[in-house]
């Protein structure tokens, strides 16, 4: 069920827990409503005389996590039902028993995770990754997947399980293989700061993986969400040449670009919101502002935007305080530049500074990009084709200006060399905190502009190189003025 969370709860499910011998004075239940840990409804229960009772408001079936003594059991809750649990002194899945009239779904969860707990336990998976080869790991995942699927299909009461529940279990089984497989190179590389690269998986292992992405209805599954997380991390690493990022903000900007290119709406909204919730304070205020703006633009003034509003605005405000101590240029947005001297300085490959108005007398097609931006790089072959559409005479009055906002010159120069870029190349370092990005209020790239022969920006949202004849004709008109 897609986003059962965005409704007003009207009914309740009760959970009564009896302990054979309680080893703690409390336990808790967290309902999966928003799929983001920080915002999930949390119910703390006090254990008295080995008994603890919960009343959970919900309008329709939902999944929840029962937590006790650092262990967790998944529960399936329905409005109007009374779930009775008894806990022994062994591990939760081994000791938990259910009272009469317990929904079949919870009985299945107990049986399934008792059998396959290790296949879904993150610490067990991590330990395996660090101790066996990727080939042996992949074989173990494949065999586990078959066993899980066979168990599920042969379950005696499978046909009596609710449709929502079956979808949840099927997604857990379906995505466990790819979530764990994609985690292998990431977990292995992150075991040590001395490891500077991510070892790519054999391409054969990733056959048809993209077909697994368009499944917004699977968001209810935490395994699917793990799959999305590692998919974005792995393929962002791929666009970076499988080199580790040195800057967390650059890393996150790159991941958001990968997510935008590959995830469908609900999955993308969750991914962006989950990042802002977990890593908001680890990246620059400018990165937070940019990603929160993208979330708001795509979601509107909706659930995630509202939940994250205070947290993000607090982080963004830190930038405003810092800005008061430095003289920053005033952004011009969509306004014409009244004086060419207002343009920020740029640095070329030789370390010399220049400004956009240095090209007065010529038409300038400006490309704002960064080495970590996959959409930017995809436009570069079209940009070369656009060059070739103009005659030598026209090129004498035309400049193709590429302005990088990379955090470092090393990343910029490496990308320039790799792509084989031609034209006037400049950098304004700092990502979204770069002087040029703040000057023009740029919050997404690639971004293109057109400057006329007087040194003024006349088109702030120019067509991309891939538009071919369209952008060619736009430039020709300025050349003829």
Defining key terms:
five-stranded mixed sheet, Glutaredoxin, 481 residues, four-stranded mixed sheet, disordered N terminus, Immunoglobulin-like, alpha+beta
Describe this structure in words.
The chain folds into three domains: 1-102, Sandwich (Immunoglobulin-like); 104-244, no CATH class; 340-479, Glutaredoxin. 43% of the residues lie in helices and 17% in strands. It has helices at 92-95, 104-120, 122-129, 134-154, 163-189, 222-239, 248-262, 265-279, 285-299, 303-323, 374-388, 392-395, 409-419, 435-440, 469-479, and strands spanning 11-19, 26-31, 42-46, 51-58, 62-68, 71-77, 82-87, 97-98, 345-347, 353-355, 363-369, 398-404, 424-427, 447-451, 457-459. It has a five-stranded mixed sheet with strand order 13-12-11-14-15. Strands 4-1-7-8 form a four-stranded mixed sheet, with no helix packed on it. The protein has a four-stranded antiparallel sheet with strand order 3-2-5-6. A hairpin with a 5-residue loop joins strand 9 and strand 10 (353-355). The longest helix is centred in the middle third of the chain and has 27 residues, at 163-189. The chain starts with 10 loop residues before the first strand and ends with a helix.
Topology:
Layout: E1 11-19, E2 26-31, E3 42-46, E4 51-58, E5 62-68, E6 71-77, E7 82-87, H1 92-95, E8 97-98, H2 104-120, H3 122-129, H4 134-154, H5 163-189, H6 222-239, H7 248-262, H8 265-279, H9 285-299, H10 303-323, E9 345-347, E10 353-355, E11 363-369, H11 374-388, H12 392-395, E12 398-404, H13 409-419, E13 424-427, H14 435-440, E14 447-451, E15 457-459, H15 469-479
